[in-house]
Design goal:
Layout (H helix, E strand, L loop, with lengths): L1 E5 L5 H11 L3 E5 L10 H6 L7 E4 L2 E4 L1 H11 L14 H27 L8 H21 L12 H9 L3 H4 L6 H11 L2 H10 L16
Parallel strand pairs: 1-2
Antiparallel strand pairs: 1-3, 3-4
Bound molecules: glutathione (GSH).
Glutathione binds next to helix 3.
Length: about 220
């Protein structure tokens, strides 16, 4: 039995979604970023920086969503979600997997500034403006990376799981009407039965309390 350490609407959603695509069951251990439940001796034992996702499998524990996703798709080649060494799509596959963290790290910094400061008045409008501009430039980049319905011309892959998850944060910090192709793409991800099953298991998110977080005036 696998155990997934999970925070609703966080990067561990990638693993939750992939498990559903692969038809695999995992016990969910729910965590809270606000509650600091990964920053405990038990949390550091499964993830050295106290972060999610962490996946316990075969007596081992893995952290880093991209490494977990890659490991699972390698173990289940029949699902066709990897583009293995030698595949002509391998470079684009790897690029999208890793670019997904360029984008996610900006979302994380926006979350930190807008949502997680104990004293919100300490947030810097200049930093938020810069982060928002950088986030939007990753969205423009993401838009150019779509090869039709999915990231790769041959169809849905694990790269879409890494990449598509990020787009859940877009409406809070940017306007989807500026990125209609990405909005359509997220719609295709969300229409997948595995995504919907993952969403049912995801749990109540504790990040966003507003529909949109504008750049503050300065
Ligand atoms: N690159 C890592 C990032 C993991 C990460 O930062 N996860 C966030 C949630 S999306 C987290 O656990 N944050 C809690 C913290 O930093 O204390 C991955 O992809 O797994």
């Amino acid at each position: 039995m696998m155990r997934l350490h999970h925070v609703p609407m966080s990067r561990s959603f990638r693993v939750l979604w992939l498990l559903e695509e692969l038809g695999l069951e995992a016990e969910l251990v729910m965590h809270s970023i606000r509650g600091g439940t990964m920053h405990t001796p038990e949390g550091y034992a499964v993830s050295p920086a106290g972060r999610v996702p962490a996946l316990e499998l075969d007596g081992e524990t893995m952290f880093e969503s991209g490494a977990i996703v890659q490991t699972l798709v390698e173990r289940h080649p029949d699902a066709g979600l990897e583009r293995a060494v030698g595949d002509t799509e391998r470079p684009a596959y790897l690029q999208a997997m890793w670019f997904s963290e360029t984008m996610a790290s900006l979302i994380e910094q926006l979350n930190m500034n807008h949502l997680f400061l104990r004293d919100p008045s300490l947030a810097s409008p200049v930093v938020i403006k810069l982060l928002t501009a950088r986030f939007k430039s990753t969205l423009r980049g993401a838009d150019t990376m779509l090869a039709g319905d999915w990231v790769l011309p041959s169809g849905f892959s694990a790269a879409d799981i890494m990449f598509g998850f990020n787009l859940r944060a877009v409406p809070y910090y940017a306007r989807f009407d500026e990125f209609p192709r990405l909005q359509g793409y997220l719609g295709r991800c969300a229409a997948r039965p595995a995504y919907q099953r993952a969403l049912e298991k995801d749990g109540e998110q504790e990040f966003y309390t507003k529909d949109f977080y504008p750049v503050p005036e300065h």
